[in-house]
């Protein structure tokens, strides 16, 4: 675990490269901020899917709850971004912990159906409360105050990207420390064989509840970031498509690898941006081909494939 906790030169270069859009691609800063937000959401799902083995198709529930919480308190008059972000993450985490008692009762196909059903219920609940959420029209009137009272969210996306990148980096540090701890080792044991963990004295359900709540909280932070940087919350923040897209990102990058979540997000969103420019109606066709290639020839994701090549050369 100590070896895993050490920072490699490639990691340092990766995070330094994340600053390049400010200099080389300033016109793509809004896209870069959306990539940072989606990467944070992907990390939250990877914590439960890649490390704990909890398969979910409804994690957009927590993304949307965080987005609506941050949006609603802003509409009601509190637009301070950092406190709003923390409150949204806490709210999503509490809901996640409550839901985790249901999640830990089922496995396999039933688990997928439960998470899917919860996602649909939350979506329809938001749709049925237009006085609170705006319904199909989305939540309007969000006004995010300048960060620390100094840095306004500009039209070109400089502040938005810096804010999203900072939150992504801090949550990545937390997640990295978590998965490289004894708790993270226990999660891997639960993922590999949940029936054997009680035999060595591990509280597997307690571990799963805790990681699910942490994952929900991080997803809520991602949703709140979206609301604060775009000043709008659409109903699709709770949609099944958002939950499915983040699973595709993880498959592309590789599950059980935090950098895989980030890499998969970059590939997915850049590919979507370019393919939508070519054909706005059928861009999913290109994503489908890319996904099939990765699944057939790189079953552990692109990052897993690259790691295997590096290991063979040693």
UniProtKB/TrEMBL annotation:
The chain crosses the membrane at residues 12-29, 35-54, 61-79, 85-103, 110-132, 161-187, 208-227, 247-270, 282-307. It is a multi-pass membrane protein. It is found in: Cell membrane. Keywords: Cell membrane, Membrane, Transmembrane, Transmembrane helix. The keyword Cell membrane applies. GO terms for molecular function: branched-chain amino acid transmembrane transporter activity. Its main location: membrane. GO terms for cellular component: plasma membrane. It holds the Pfam family BPD_transp_2. This is Branched-chain amino acid ABC transporter permease. It comes from Devosia ginsengisoli. The lineage of its organism: Bacteria, Pseudomonadati, Pseudomonadota, Alphaproteobacteria, Hyphomicrobiales.
